[in-house]
Amino acid sequence: MDSLLFLILCLLSLFIANYGMGSTDFRIPLYSTKTPYFWGKDIDEFIREDEEIWVDYDNKECQIIHLNLILRHGSRSPTLSWIKKMTVLGNILKSNPEVIERFPFLNSWENPFPETRAGHLSDLGEDEHFSLGRRFGRRFSLLFTGDLENILYGVTYKQRTQASCASFYEGLTDTLDGESRKNVKPAINDKLLRFFDTCSKYIKSVENNKTAAPEHTSFKYGAEMQRIAQKIADKLGLKTLNSEEAQTIHHLCAFELALFDKSDWCDMLEKEDLFIFEYLYDLKQYWKRGYGHSVNWGMSCPFNSNVFKQLNDVIYKARNGEDYNVADIQFAHAETIIPIFTAFGLFNDSVPLKADNYESQKERQFRTSKIVPMSASFGIGLYQCEASEDPEEVYVVRMFVNEKPVVIPACGQEICEYKQFMKYYDDLVNCNYAEICENNKPHDEL
């Protein structure tokens, strides 16, 4: 019996070594922007009611009076281009008897992602935002209670942002006992939330420019990705596999595991491969949305200037005893939030991300799996401090990324006086979108 058990264990170890750790071990925050929110957060985290309502600043007690919050949509189905790549690759592999012998699941595999649902919010995404609505409702209960009518909601034209908003609102009202449960009616505001769609300079020089992210391209066809592609090919029994096909397998693993809680495609990968894929996608986001080009963050001008306009409006009305909006909650995309993070100077590594510095960048701040997973959030809280000998009331701000306070570059601390905050970000307060994006230039001059 002992010898039989020993043999079984040896065979199991050999299987794991050859075919990965099993998909359940892959639920970790390493999938860049495709990472489900609660793979990197504790869904059962204890949240003390009103734990973010008060802060101490300069020996004064300050209470939040406004929360400006933007959230990325929740976990979704793949986009149409990836769904098509998945179908093509699946059909190619299914036609190869040797591959079928090694991975029998392919014999009956059909693409589980309908093209008609491309990019749509999933059940998991709904659950994420319902949970987030409850979590924010608990952290800021005193701010929201009795003031649900004084909250603005904004979305983009995409179904996934509108459905995320509805789920968030349901969770928020579920937490605030006795509050209204009317259906939320968000404003569709693509001008603020999809600024990347209308920025001429960005579209031509970055988004549609194949040479705008050379580091990503170099890494995509470099030694690390070639090694992974060949390793997957060996597992499949193929001579070669290209980088695009390797990425498709990675996407299949990520999306199936996230949305269906299981994926046999993950058995073609190993845990160490996920770090390489993550860096590949971080390079893309860094150069196409982040610090790689100044227009990437400059184009977030409509959103950023509107934030300061609202904060100034709240301060003015609070000083004059007028009603004001206690929150502005908007739902957008990774393409929205990454430029905003960059504009505020968050997650800025001293050394740029490049194709040849993967090893030295393992502790990088710009890690999209952690900063902008599905359902990521960025909040700015405005706090009014108790009266003092100073005739002018003091206001301070805090920044929250994925529910947690972060150090604000404007002052190097988690709490900044609003005057200092606004002065530091003057370029965001007074930006000119048309000039930044060169929208007034003839197209051939861009």
UniProtKB/TrEMBL annotation:
Organism, scientific name: Mytilus galloprovincialis (Mediterranean mussel)
* Stated name of the protein: Multiple inositol polyphosphate phosphatase 1
UniProt keyword Disulfide bond, yes or no: yes
**Catalytic activity annotated for this protein?**
1D-myo-inositol hexakisphosphate + H2O = 1D-myo-inositol 1,2,4,5,6-pentakisphosphate + phosphate; (2R)-2,3-bisphosphoglycerate + H2O = (2R)-2-phosphoglycerate + phosphate; 1D-myo-inositol 1,2,5,6-tetrakisphosphate + H2O = 1D-myo-inositol 1,2,6-trisphosphate + phosphate; 1D-myo-inositol 1,2,4,5,6-pentakisphosphate + H2O = 1D-myo-inositol 1,2,5,6-tetrakisphosphate + phosphate
Q: Disulfide bonds, which pairs?
A: 62-385, 253-266, 411-416
UniProt keywords (A-Z) are:
Cell membrane, Disulfide bond, Glycoprotein, Hydrolase, Membrane, Signal
Its domain of life reads: Eukaryota
Q: Kindly report the protein's main subcellular placement as a broad class.
A: membrane
Phylogenetic classification of the source organism = Eukaryota, Metazoa, Spiralia, Lophotrochozoa, Mollusca
Q: Which major enzyme category is it?
A: hydrolase
The molecular function terms of the Gene Ontology recorded here are: acid phosphatase activity; bisphosphoglycerate 3-phosphatase activity; inositol phosphate phosphatase activity
InterPro entries xref list: Acid_Pase_AS, His_Pase_clade-2, His_PPase_superfam, Histidine_acid_Pase_euk
One Gene Ontology term, aspect cellular component: plasma membrane
The Swiss-Prot or TrEMBL record describes its family as follows: Belongs to the histidine acid phosphatase family. MINPP1 subfamily.
The EC number(s) given in the record are 3.1.3.62, 3.1.3.80
Signal peptide range equals 1-22
